[in-house]
Each structure stands twice: as structure tokens, then as C-alpha cells.
Amino acid sequence: MRTEIETPPLRLWLGLIAVSLGVALIVVDLTIVNVIVAPIVDDLAITSIQAQWIQESYAIVFAALLLLTGRLSDLYGARKLFLIGLVVFGVTSLLAALAPSGGLLILARFLQGIGGAMILPTSLALVNSAFTGKARGQAFAIWGSTIGAAAAVGPLLGGWLADFSWRWAFGINIPMVALIMAAVLIYLPVSPSSPGRVDWLGAALSALGLGLLAFALIEGRHYGWLMVTEPLSIGEFAWRSGPSPVLIALAGAILALGMFWRRQARLTDEPLLDVRLFSIDSFRKGNVVTLLVGLGEFGIIAVLPLWMQFALDYTALQAGLALVPLAIGSFVASGASFSMTVSALGQVRIGLLLEAAGLALLGLFAAADSSWWSIAVALFVYGIGVGFATAQVTNVVLADVPAESAGQGSGIQSAARELGSALGIAVLTTVFFSTLGAGLRDRLTDANLSEAEANQLTSTVTDSAGSVIPTLAEDTAEAARAAMASGIEVSSYLCAGLLVLALATTAFVKPARKA
């Protein structure tokens, strides 16, 4: 039976704000690098391969360690692990800000992922254990709207800081970490810990499996899903031909995760993952919904800035500002949820419906000359949906999880969210660039260019992710802008369809027993 924590309500809400800001930091660091990568390349004279690892090493390590950090949260206390994660995140942010070379920056990003993996599941465990009743749904509303807002604010913050120095994109984390740590220490009580041990073999299998799976989902479009399309280089080693490293990574992930599950199912004494949690209906089916929500929710954020900057001629800062309505909508949903009597599952359904509607509007408005207000309206509706769905799906998943397993439950739900997002981004970017390439090739051949010329120009545009469009001849640039708008249209409708699928899946979820 979960009991109320004897903390004055105001202190508890202030602690929640601190925890939410901690989550905002790690989410921003997932998106901010996409905007600042160009000045990093210029300043450190790094290769495109190094730039790619700077962008994606953080996300891979982050996903790989979520199950382990969830278990450590139960053993040593969520607040303690949250604070350790903040320290790791702050120190590695300082290392990234001062990095004199691409290699050290990549190392800093790998280590940042460790801190992020400590912060996310422990933040969930803290919210889950500190609040009950109606306040619990309100607390998750604040926590979830922070994720939606942070995903949108990342590009804006990156675009603004890039005008000063890319190093500030990491340096700004340091005072924020200090502020958040002070607030958590003052306002949140010490979390209970439980005696036990860590299944380190299980931890290694889960980290290997989740890490390989995250790598495959993130890098599939770049290296090829089946056969090598681009060489993978690590130091002096280069994988240039034959089966893709992504295919091998997927096979390794299936093997490692299969061995991990079998081991956990057989362990009766302190498993890393208590498989009995999946006997809880709201937890098991809620995680399926979480995966589908991640699949359809944030993939569009990966391609919207490309369209805005290279087709609509926005600056990086303007592209970031264009995403602000998403953040505003997310916070509007958070405020609205405080006075709503609808259940957490009901709010998830409302959120998914609004997300799908917002993305359908975005697809409808997508054009080579879309107005800023039409994009703002679509993203505002979408943001309201994110604020409801992202927050309350977590409430649904964790509501019936025993307090002593809150960390494990949070780690599993976080892993489902991150892997769903990674898969969604992989699917969406593939669809976007395929639609862009096919549409541009058709437009160029219709304009009487030879097939060889059309193919060459198409490859140039898609390989640059659209960045060469402003340098092209006017007719070719117009064709590329129109093709990019078609890519946004198809991608928006696809994401809307995935969210409708997630909405349909909620019909199989029983309301949680606990409020």
C-alpha cells in the first residue's frame, strides 16, 4: 500500500519543479546538438563521422543503461541516484564545453549518457512515490509537459547559443545542475532504499542488448539496414562492405536481450528485471502504448528544422522559435489537467487524438511557402496532445507498480519510450528522405533534365539533408523545396496514423487500480 509522504505540499511541488528541470536538461541535450553541429565542425575541424558520433553517442548510452539505473534506484534510493546522475551530467557537460578536440567531445557525450540514464528513471520513481491521488496525476502532468517543452526548446536554445559559441550549449548545464541539486536536497525527502544486490551479468546483457538496438535504430538509414551503404569507421578500423553493421547489431541485440529475459525469468532472487511486473495489466499494456506513442510522437521534430531552414529559409534561431508553440501547448495541457476530472487513461486518449489532429493539420499546411501561423497552429494543437499523452501514459504504466519496484518499473517505461522514439525517428527519417528523393527526381525529369542529371542532383540534395538547396539554381531549388514539403506532408500523416494506432491500443488497457 502506497502511503503519503509527510512533506509540506509547497515543498513537494518545489521539489517536483526541480526534478522536472533535471529531466528538461537531459531531453534538451538530445536535441540541441542537431542545431550546433555545424559550428562544432568548423571550430574543431572534425570529420562528418565524428560529427555523427557527437550527435548520437549520448542517445545510445542513455538507452543502454536505463534498466540498470532503474534497479540501482530501488537499491540505493531514487533521490541519491538522481543527485549522482546530476553530478555526472554536470561534470561531463563541463568536459564537453572545454573539449579541445572531436575525440574528447565524443567521450564527453558518451559519459553524459550515463548521467542522463541515471536522471530519467529516478525522476519517474521520485514522482511516483511522492504523490498520490489527484495530485499524482497533476505531478505527472508537469513532468510530462516538461519533456514536450524541452524537446521543442532544444533547437531554439541551440540556435540562440550558437550565435555566441557552441560551447555554451554544454556550459549552460553547469549552473542549472547546481541549482537543481540544491533544490532537490532542500525540498525532497530522502528516498527509501532496500537491501539487495545487482545482477551484473544481467546488467551487462541488458546494456549490450539495448545499446546495440539503439545503435541499429538510430544508424539504420545511414549505414544501411541489410548491406553496407556507407562505411563505418572507428579509429583505424573501417567496415566498408558486406552485411551492414546495423544488421549485425540487430542480431546481437536480439540475442543479448533474449538471453537477458531468459536469465531474469529464471532468477528468483533479486533479478535486475522482475518479470512479474508484466503480470500487472496496466503496466504491461501501458508499456505497449508507451512504445507506440514514442514511435509516432517525436520523430517529426527530427525533420521539421530541416524543412524550416532549407525550404522555408528560416535561420536556426527562427526554426527554434517556430517550435515554441509546441512547448506552449504542452504547458497549456499541464495547466488544464489540474481542473480535469478525467482519468489518466482518458487524458492519454484525449492527448493522442489531439496529437494526431495537430500532425494532420501540419501535413495539410505543408508547402514550399507555408506561413508561420499555419505551422504554429498545427504545432500548438500537437503540443497540447503531447502534454496530455506523454505525462499521463507514465501515470497509467506506474500506477499499480509496488513502491519497492518503482525504480525497475520506471527504467522499463523509460526504455520503452526511448526505443519507441528511436524507432520512430528511424522510420520517419527514412520515409522523409525517400519521399524527398523520389519527389525531386520526378520533378527534375518532368523539367526535361536527363535521368543522370536528375539522379545526381537528387543525391546531392538528400545527402546534404537539404542544406544545399539555397545554393541551387532557382528552378532546381523550387523543385527541391516542393519535394521537401511533400516529405513533411507524408511524414506528418504517417505520424498521425501511428498515434491513431496508439489510441486504438488504449482500448485494451484497463484503468489502473490505484488513483
What does this structure look like?
- With 515 residues, the chain is mainly alpha-helical.
- Helix content is 76%, strand content 1%.
- The protein has a two-stranded antiparallel sheet.
- Residues 1-8 have low confidence and may be disordered.
**H/E element string?**
HHHHHHHHHHEEHHHHHHHHHH
Spatial order of the strands forming the largest sheet: 1-2
Q: pLDDT below 50 for ≥5 consecutive residues: which ranges? A: 1-8
Number of helices: 20
Report the oligomer.
single chain
Strand content: under 5%
Give the mean pLDDT: 86
Distance between the termini: 12 Å
Shape verdict: globular
Helical fraction: over 70%
SS content category: mainly alpha
Please report the total strand number as a whole number.
2
